[in-house]
Amino acid sequence: MDEFFINTLIYSNNREGIYLKMNKSLECFLNDSSVWFNVCLKEDVFIRSRSSRLHNEIILDCSSNKNIVLTHIKTLCESTAISKNLESTFKYLIIYNADNLTKDNQIILKAIVEKYHVYTRFILTTTKYSLINYRLISLFYVHKLQYKESNNTRIKQEIYKMFENSDDLSKFRNIIYTLLINNIDHSEILEMFWCYFSKKTKCQHSLIHFIADCDKSLLIGERSIYHYDYLYLKVKVLFQNVEHKMN
After folding, report:
1. Domain coordinates of the chain in residue numbers?
2. Which pLDDT does position 90 carry in this prediction?
3. What is the model's pTM?
4. Residues near 166 by Cβ (< 8 Å), separated by ≥ 6?
5. Domain 150-246 part of CATH 1.20.272
6. In this structure, CATH architecture of domain 2-144
7. pLDDT digits (tens, 9 = 90+) for 168-188
């Protein structure tokens, strides 16, 4: 678990891949007594849980979106603070499917993370990154489970060819959808955008400014395709203005 020395948010569109990743990372903690079991928090609220001396895991689902779940998380953190008070180590708390918490409950979780971070390392997972509140994200290192590099390279090569033929917004939108469907991270999309269009204009400072604005909007927005559309239109206007000046 040395890779998770700070609070980390793991996201991927492959939920099974997340579980496999965490199981591999937790191998050093697990023993015969580390088994999954149901915890009844309330008459109609259950969560799946597993623990060891150095970690706790809980799996949230759509029925876990209740304040009592946050109370349970707070209790786990408080018990960790007491048990670790005389030690220099910390305990891991892994919360799967954090996107099942409402925005309000995510803000409460943010307060819990801020209060108990000294004795607890928080690891959140999600398959729906856009549903995670940006204020909560600000406390975490974001780690995206990547596809194999060979597959990424092939996709990028195909995308560059598509850029060559993108002369209108609808074609560009199809490119972006291709990237999103292939689980390409927004930072990689913007990097590809920069690598391609920076070679076609001398106004690179403006291009950097547009991409930075888009990056910020993508982190706090929910309909990413509209932010990419806006970026494309701004760059297209930039190119038209440069051509107009040259003529």
Report:
1. 2-144, 150-246
2. 81
3. 0.62
4. 172, 175
5. yes
6. 3-Layer(aba) Sandwich (3.40)
7. 777 778 778 777 766 677 777
